[in-house]
Design goal:
Helices cover 42% and strands 11% of the residues. By secondary structure, it is of the alpha+beta class.
Amino acid sequence: MHGDVRPDCPGRCGDSITCEVVECRRPLRHNARVPSVESRPRAAESPAFPSLLRSWRRKRRLSQLDLALTSGVSQRHVSFLESGRAQPSRAMILQLSETLEVPLRERNDWLVAAGFAPVFRTRPLDDPQMSPVMAAVRMMLANHAPFPAVAIDRAWNIRMANGPFEDLAARLGADVWTRVGGDRRNVMRLLFHPQGVRPLVVNWMQIAPLLWHRARREAESLGGDEMWQLLDELQPFQDAATLWVPDDAALVPVLPLVIALGPLRISTFTVIATFGTAQDVTADELRIESFFPADAATEALFRQAAAVRASQS
């Protein structure tokens, strides 16, 4: 089948094409001078609302006046909120967090820090209310065949994948996910762990800095500790040059990831899709990463693999 979509549930379904798509209920785990992950500011255990507001305002590179003008709140009131001289209402918290584009998970943290109950639920993928979301995810993954596509969360954990992605991962070795470690299959570990795809990447010195800095930007802008923990874990494996953006990175419109598997060269780039009006934490953090062939040979390879799968089904 071209459009089979498989959940990240090794051991539950095996390679069966009749496997149901459900959420895996597993616990998530949370010497040159280079841009160090450890140098980032770390939040206190239970930050108060004023420090959260100030931290996110600075993260968005806004002055108090900028935030006031953008949110429709007086600069005086913003100053009083950050100093603790004024207490925010629930509506004010939601207004400011929306203006600062704070992720839903962290908006709940703001509410709790100010003494309010969380507003945004974190539903599992198999929750009945998530049915429209999951239908859209399944459709996008299936319709992208014969090319690979995955649904990942903000820490790049794979939540679902289509058949072509599973086939591509299988080419890296049946034990590749064991080699790179972790409780969940994780794209960041697959890319940057020395036992993952890294030794096979032809243009590693060009693509690795871009991917590493993308992960850092997402960790900074989306919040959450899991991606920072991954960066901490993987940074000792990286060469100093890996963590700097190369001078020639802008010579092409989109830089592909080029993998050499024996005589095969697989060249792909990705496009990321997110939900524009998410009001659930899980949906807010979910993104579809679709792989596209960067050359005719790669396109032919994926189409040929799809034809083989179809003949065997």
